[in-house]
Amino acid sequence: MKIPNKIKILAHNYLVKEIDGLADDGSLNWLENTILINKKLPQSRKEAVLFHEILHAINGEIDEKEVEFLTQTIYQILNENKLLK
Fold this sequence. Notes:
Blueprint (H helix, E strand, L loop, with lengths): L5 E4 L2 E8 L6 E4 L4 E5 L4 H16 L5 H17 L5
Parallel strand pairs: 2-4
Antiparallel strand pairs: 1-2, 3-4
Helix pairs in contact: 1-2
């Protein structure tokens, strides 16, 4: 799957950027509607990080452990069923 430059989540447009020097794997900025992904990650991890940040954008109240569980579960299902293109 190619990481998109833009994504629409719940009627909001987000800019998606792969950047160097990011301290974490990824982050979501609610004020600027941006998702940042660490450019140095392997492709599969970038894809999972994008899903992770999308889940945060959908519901910022879900705790980090639950978001990561859902991320890994959804990513595995999509990847193993060859639904990521």
